[in-house]
Amino acid sequence: MNELVNSEFISCPYCGETIEVLFEQTDESYEYIEDCQVCCRPIVFHVEVSISGEETLYVHSENDTF
């Protein structure tokens, strides 16, 4: 099975550091939590997939709402 993975640079909502994250390319929107590589606090990742298949990555702290 060949999984497609995207890479993007984001700013941690806690410490502000720029980090590179990897996320799977899928046909549906999804959400997951991953710890910051610098400060180890939980970042919520929300991957939104449009009808045309374009993916947009949103990140926020655990206490913020999307």
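(the above was protein one; protein two follows)
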Amino acid sequence: MTSDNSKNSTVSGMSSEEEAKLTVLRDGIDDIDKKIALLINNRAQLAQEVAAVKHQFKSDDEPVVFYRPEREAQVLRKIMDLNEGPLNDEEMARLFREIMSACLALERPVSVAYLGPEGTFTQQAALKHFGHSARTSSMPAIDDVFREVESGSVNYGVVPVENSTEGVINHTLDNFMTSGLKICGEVELRIHQNLMVSDVTKIDSITRVYSHAQSLAQCRKWLDAYYPHVERVAVNSNSEAARRIKGEWNSAAIAGELAAHQYGLHILNEKIEDQPDNSTRFLIIGSEPVPISGDDKTSIMVAMKNQPGALHSLLQPFHQHNIDLTRIETRPSKTGAWNYVFFIDFNGHISDYSVKEALKVIDLHAADVKVLGSYPRAVL
């Protein structure tokens, strides 16, 4: 003889009432999934029609431009403005980035070179900006990324330019002195460092930690507290650190989550960076100028004449035209000793009236002014 409770239970252990409610909800999810799939394919078909129109009206002497940074930024901002939750804005934008990446690949996949090797934060930045449908290739040095884009072997490049903890990456700035490439976009990536080990590591016998010099610096206090006597070995990249420990039983590595997946490592301690808001800014470099998106930044390089008041002459026009400077860096000029070049980022687009007027004044006092690019401010 069975009780009423057993009659109301199912094989799965749920009551019949619970299972009935879940069935209704799951049927609703299935129905929405069907509609989403249909709408995504409708969007993809429109993307193909856009490509056909571009081919139809292209000039004979100009290549067809499929990827439009300003258009993608506008779409992502609109999606974030429309978002009512429960997904947060960043997650919603990430999903739409992948949809746009897949749709763009139907027109023509974007080819992107990044500072490698695989598993680095720069690869993570490339995927964040272009989505996983882009064709990415790793380069051994920043110079090589610039060279690949300049030669036309790839459409775009991704290079790091500054870290909130360790400062500017000078080698990236130096490349702009001789390159004719434009800055087409930026990516801001939250940097989480992780201590990881391999399947052969004896955790109680770790005597060496590998990582890039900047990552070791970003985790200095944590290492002092938890591994004060462990040797810290700087290598060319965090991916190199992750690769090395695969065959060393007494070693660990500090790297990002992507490197752990790439090399099959186990994360022993998460988010060990000393500064919780540690982030790195990356630049997207290409050959074409970017039209105004509505929320833009501009980067310029200025060589000032060696005379009293030169710095004041450089900064005053920005103040007069109410232009917000976001960064200014100084690098030694390659043209002579004790001459310096200023790298300046500010809010606004080169086509803005106030920006044009400010640069006119600066040009009167400067030995050289080079606009590196106007581009959408980082959306995510």
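Reviewer note on protein two: The CA atoms of residues 317 and 359 lie 8 Å apart.
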